Amino acid sequence: MMTFYWVALLIISFAFVGLLYRLIKGPSIADRIVALDALGVALVSIIALLSLILETKFFLAIILLLSILAFIGTVAFAKFIERGVIFDRKPNR
Amino acid sequence: MSLVFLIFLPILAALLIPLLFKKLSRIHTGWFVLIVPVILFIYYASYLPQTMEGGTFTSEFQWIPSLDIAFIAYLDGLSLLFSLLITGIGSLVVLYSTFYLDKNREQLHNFYVYLLIFMTAMLGVVQSDHMITLYLFWELTSISSFLLIGYWYTRDRSRFGALKSMMITVFGGLMMLGGFVLLSIMGNTYSIRELIAQAPDLVQHEFFIWALVLILLGAFTKSAQFPFYIWLPDAMEAPTPVSAYLHSATMVKAGLYLVARFTPIFAASGLWVWLVTGVGLFTMIWASVFALKQKDLKGILAFSTVSQLGLIMSLLGASAMGFHVEDAANTVFKYAAFAAIFHLVNHAVFKGSLFMVAGIVDHETGTRDIRKLGGLMSLMPISFTIAMIGSLSMAGIPLFGGFLSKETFLTAMLAITEFEPFSMDVWGFLFPVIAWVGSVFTFIYSLYFVLHTFTGKHKPEELPKQAHEAPIGMLIPPAILAMLVIAIFFIPNVVGDWIVKPAVLAIQPFLYTSPEQVDVHVSAWHGFNTELFMTLGIFAVGGLLFWLLRKWQPVYDKLPETYSLNSLYDFMMYLSDSGAKRFSALYMTGFIRSYLAYMFGFFILIMLTTLYLVDAFVFDTTNLAPVGTYEIFIAIALVAATITTIAAKSRLTAIVALGAVGYSVALFFVIFRAPDLALTQLVIETISVALFLLAFYHLPINSKKEERISFKVGNAAIALGVGVTMTLVALSAHSQKLLPSISEYYKETVYSEAGGGNIVNVILVDYRGFDTLFEIAVLGIAGIGIITMIKLRLSKKEGHHENK
């Protein structure tokens, strides 16, 4: 079983490297943001597999946190591309 | 009344002076001041009969008992002599100043306050038996002298003179403090009397020479010996009463007092004898030669003071030789100390009167330039008489006190030629020769001073004022001194018995045990001996040279000013000022990068040197954990991200790469099993990357330019050095753990003691909650700081720059 986890970890690591390539190379900002989002997911998988390998359940919180961070980050970037700002000012101020 | 409190009488009186000056402005403040020195003089004079028999008096006032510091007044012959000089001439000077200083135009309250402070300081110097309080009073004389020289503070020359004298005398004072401290370490006491008692043991001590040299530096700077005499001519910018009091009769003699007081301790050293005698004689001849260069009356007197101080200093040195001579009390060596003290008294008397005359001439003609003066004899007959008496005494002509001290001086110098220790037999013949040449020049400048002022042609058109005789009150003090000059000639043995011999006892306790044993009898006629012929030679050669003065005096103007000691002093001051400025400009570049380079550079230097010195390059591999494969991968990612951060072409890449570094660290936390750290690290890294991006987004357009960090060899070396150093320190620390970790305790008690399962959180809030509290405070401060920086834009109100 452990071998299976290691192999999975290796595969995801390769995916990680491929995503990194896209992050660096990616011609448009949108390409990079998608790559970053996918990197976050890959990181989640890596940590999940690591916690299996290390036989601990304490890292599950990190997985949750990473998922939230990746989501918020992607949304923020998307809004930045769309509007140019992340936080809207209230019109009356 | 207790002796020690009398020292403070003048300074207490000084407290009242401003009040008297303001409230009783119709009466000249000087009259009130006069009371103080007169009372003190009478009081101290009443001690004469007792000190004559060798009696001493002590009086103690504790100041800091736990540190063994006290004011101890010790009155023996030497202290009493000086106390009488200070209070006696002080009274005359105060009397003189009441007529010299105008009560409406001058700031008399300042003047008399400074003068009374000075009086306390001088009395303290000469009466202190405790070295620390002696130093205290010593510095007080420097400070009050500084204030008095700069009395007319609106004049540039006054301020320059005050600063110069301050620099030199305080330098000497600090050196002297060093000597005192060394002496107190050597003898384990601060008391001079106790040190004298253990003098034979002190000679063996390794600090002895240091203490000797340092104390001599203090004495030489104060007494204006070569090469430190340069402050005295510049101190002539002070009001004339100050010059008469401080710079002829009292303060400049503090150094002589110090040498005389410490002679019993240091006389055993050959260095002391050589330095004191040699420097004294050299100063004497140097200053007497240069006195003739001066065009200013007070300038001549300043140089003559320096010269006479050198003379007394050399005699004190010769008196220390008496320590090395078998049965000195019965040889001619017995004259040296007697001559020193006798001449000290003589000098104080005649120089005080000469300064006062110079002041009178200045006051009544408006100038002190000797080239403009002349022919005042018939206009100012009394001043002329007084000046004549003073000058002839200074020149050493019979009928005046100076003749006797000059004779004893020559006797003492001749005695040195017979002195054998310290190869004095080789060089000894030089001493009387130098003394003789110095005396010739003394003779010339004495005549130069008095004759070029009072005889010759009167030049009323060059004088700012119509010359006339001074008011009677101004003439009384110098007249009293002039009478003393003559009196000393006719009753030298009374002065000798009452004042000089008790003082000699204090200087040479190794020779005598009571003043009566000082077997010196001064008489005006010694018979035909070498001294007499030398004196006649002085008169003949001096008279001839004075006759031809107009012929050779211009030689002085040809001497280049650039090579004088004054320009050396000016150059040193300039060098220390501009040099310090240039030095600080050199390293204080104003760039943070320079300062960081210094810090890191010194960090590398200190750490590596320490590691080398304590031989800590020990790397122990036994305790290391095996390296996992995944750790290698993350480490590679970390290093790659770091290199990208440094080498990135754009700032944006660097920010992202920095984020990658942070995430890799979070991964490390994961695999090293630190879930709390990993959580926090992830969130914080995300936020800080967002903040970096924010900062990047608001950069001005032209600085967003895509540019690599330029490569600098120095920076690379320092960066490499810091990295290597820290690595070495970490490895070294890891291999040499002395104690086991405390964490076992936490592990065992986390549940039983603290009732928690998460050990990290329990440490944070329970075991070591204080750290957490203040980290919360740090965060709070940071938050408030950010708000204030954003909201409080004060520069916005001033309009324009930076903030949009």
Q: What pattern of helices and strands is seen along the backbone of chain A?
A: HHH
Biggest sheet architecture of chain A = none
Total separate domains of chain A: 1
Biggest interface between chains: A-B, 18 and 16 residues
Form type of chain B: elongated
User: Number of DSSP strands of chain A?
Assistant: 0
User: What fraction strand of chain A?
Assistant: under 5%
Rg of chain B, rounded, reads 38 Å
N-C termini distance of chain B: 79 Å
Can you summarize the main beta sheet of chain B?
Answer: 2 strands, antiparallel
- Per DSSP, the total helix count of chain B is 36
Which strand order does the major sheet of chain B show?
1-2
Q: What separation lies between the terminal Cα atoms of chain A?
A: 60 Å
Q: Give the beta-strand count of chain B.
A: 2
- Counting structural domains of chain B, the number is 4
- Helix run count of chain A: 3
User: Spans of chain B of 5+ residues with little confidence (pLDDT < 50)?
Assistant: none
Helix fraction of chain B by DSSP (H/I, runs of at least 4): over 70%
Membrane topology (chain A): Multi-pass membrane protein
GO molecular function (chain A): sodium:proton antiporter activity
Keywords (chain A): Antiport, Cell membrane, Ion transport, Membrane, Transmembrane, Transmembrane helix, Transport
Subcellular location (chain A): Cell membrane
